[in-house]
Amino acid sequence: MKKQIVLATIATLATSSAFATKARMNALGQGQDRGSFYIQDTRNVFRNAARINQANNYVVTEWGTASTAASSETTPQAEGGFFKNTGSFNYGVYLGSNVTDQNRNVTITGFADALGGNTIGTHGATTLQDRANDLDLFFGGDMGVEWGARVHYANGSAESATAGETEKKQSTLELGLGMVMGDLNAYVNYVIKDEQENDGTTTAGVKREDDGSLNVGLGYDWMDFTFFADYNKQGSEFNAGGTAVVDTTEQKVLTIGAGHTQEISSTSRMFTDLSYVSTSAEDVDGADTTTKVEASTKALPLTVGFETDATSWLTLRGSITQNLFVNSLKVKNGTGTETSSTRSNSTGVNAGATLNFGKLMVDGMIGTTGANRAGGSVGDRQGVLATDNLMTQVAVHYWF
């Protein structure tokens, strides 16, 4: 009887530790924004909305700043929400997530130097209205095929007391759809609208708008492996006034790979994934085509992570990530001059832990991000971070 109780306890711990937060995702070397391609985690609902059917009846809070800047691994932003089951359906409300915000507030991943530090959608538009108070609504069910939908909404405005200035506005609308049918899963996340307007400057009509940002992908489970493919496009146009588009940016990322989960023991798990990541980006000054810059990277990142239930109240995890063999950067400027190089310092090491207090769990993570590691603040390890950074994150979640 005692043996059965011990086994049941171990099974419960293994299950609970598999549902956590951005801190867990980063500690295991995964993308913090949309979650993992193959590791089961509640964060995956931002990639595939149908995952809401596999994790419900919990509350989660992510500690961070109240800054209006986009959340990143090194500067996390406060966010959180709850997910609940009711009959045959599941629903959730999440506050503060700014995955869509990455499309305009994050430097084109890995190309900060090549593009002169230009940031998607800002390009001198420092007076545009910041986006804040993001809201995500989830709804899903299981009718033989698990399905789910996510609607992301943000809206804000501000009036200036300065003479001659009127109002700044911002609005965002994104739709996410997903399905899980046996071993197959597929998803699409599309930005319907993401605009910032500023009628309050001396030049009327300053505007930034999203140019059809899209994320689609699919995955297939076979034994202990998951094979995945993901395509992510981000685009932005900035108009400094009048009718001419003076700056556009675009980034496309294709990720193809496989992940493997191995149960080392009843309390320990090992995660390994290898993927090919091809990224292309361009920045075009509409007023001067000679300033056009095109850049591309190719990488083969390998990630090895582990997780173990050290005691009944403590789960430990860690990971190491590095680009293998393929790790190149090519840049072509407006005059046609092309340069290529092999990026260095692609290694990242992270560690984390979960403190278990019954249904209440506290996650923590600390790690380093190599300047050219196979990762990035856009998530999904789509590129690189601009500099070496120290990451720290804390989150709390409660199952009810």
Could you characterize what this model shows?
With 400 residues, the chain is mainly beta. The protein has one domain: Porin (Beta Barrel). It has three helices and 18 strands. It has an 18-stranded antiparallel sheet that branches. The longest helix has 15 residues. The two termini are 27 Å apart.
- Summarize the amount of helix as a percent range: under 10%
- How many domains? The number is 1
Find the CATH topology: Porin
Anisotropy-based shape:
globular
CATH architecture: Beta Barrel
User: Counting H and I runs of at least 4 residues, what is the number of helices?
Assistant: 3
**Helix-strand pattern:** HHEEEHEEEEEEEEEEEEEEE
Strand content: over 45%
Q: Which structural class fits the helix and strand makeup?
A: mainly beta
Parts with pLDDT < 50 across at least 5 consecutive residues: 1-18, 101-126, 371-388
Q: How would the blueprint of this fold be written?
A:
Elements: H1 2-16, H2 22-27, E1 58-62, E2 79-86, E3 89-95, H3 102-105, E4 135-142, E5 146-159, E6 167-181, E7 184-198, E8 206-210, E9 214-222, E10 225-239, E11 247-263, E12 268-285, E13 293-311, E14 314-332, E15 338-342, E16 348-357, E17 360-369, E18 389-399
Antiparallel strand pairs: 1-2, 1-18, 2-3, 3-4, 4-5, 5-6, 6-7, 7-8, 7-9, 8-10, 9-10, 10-11, 11-12, 12-13, 13-14, 14-15, 14-16, 16-17, 17-18
